Amino acid sequence: MINLVIFGAPGSGKGTQSEKIVEKYGFEHISTGDVLRNEIKNQTKLGTIAQQYIDKGQLLPDELMIDILASVYDSFGTCKGVIFDGFPRTIPQAESLQKLLQERGTDVSAMLDLDVPEDLLIERLINRGKSSGRADDNEATIKQRLEVYHNQTSPLIEWYQKAGKYHHIKGVGEVSDIFNTISQVIDSL
Predict the structure, then answer these.
(1) pLDDT for position 130
(2) Residue 184: inside a domain
């Protein structure tokens, strides 16, 4: 089974590219953002806790996310592959994901890093907020999310480079061109 980590700052196109991977390859998709938004919408205990962190532009505690991921991952049963979108975001989370997968006899196959300049990220997120109504897509929260990303998340690039699983993807340009680059990586696995 192929396990992909799709990586990039908020607004880099992870969701868009994940949809295209699902369509072409038949992979399952775990978007931690979607899972959390669903929990918040349904006002579950986890959703209430998650909302407090999200409102501040902070990451959720690792143990919460791992429990959610394990449950969703196990619900897929036998499948061609899984895309992890929005997780891991820190090295301890990457280590936890590696452990979770190894306990199931598999591992991360590749980390796809969608690289987009920060000014374009801010523009994309503000526009997304206007069209989707997402409360976390306002300028103050966006800047906080990008700061968290740079401080806590970007060290994962080096971690996956050392593991030989890192793939830089230019996240600017036509969606189809970006996806062609991603497809070349997947086809080489």
Answers:
(1) 85
(2) no
Which pTM was predicted? 0.85
CATH classification of the domain holding 124: 3.40.50.300
Identify the active-site residue in 104, 128, 162, 165. 128
The reply to whether 187 falls in a domain is: no
Clarify whether 37 is annotated catalytic.
Answer: no
Judged against a pLDDT cut of 80, whether residue 136 lies above it is answered with: no
The residue from 89, 124, 143, 162 that is catalytic is 89
> Is 128 a known active-site residue?
yes
Told to judge if 104 belongs to the known catalytic residues of this protein, a careful annotator would answer no
Q: What is the pLDDT of residue 164?
A: 97
pLDDT at 6 over 90: yes
Domain assignment of residue 109, yes or no:
yes
DSSP for residue 61 = P
- Confirm if 85 and 31 have CB atoms less than 8 A apart: yes
Share of the chain above pLDDT 70, in %: 99
How many domains, the chain?
A: 1
Query: Quick check: is 161 in a domain?
Result: yes
- For 106, the token pair is 């598999």
CA–CA dist 175, 13 (Å, integer): 9
pLDDT tens digits, 33-57: 788 888 789 888 878 888 888 788 7
Single out the catalytic residue among 20, 134, 143, 165: 134
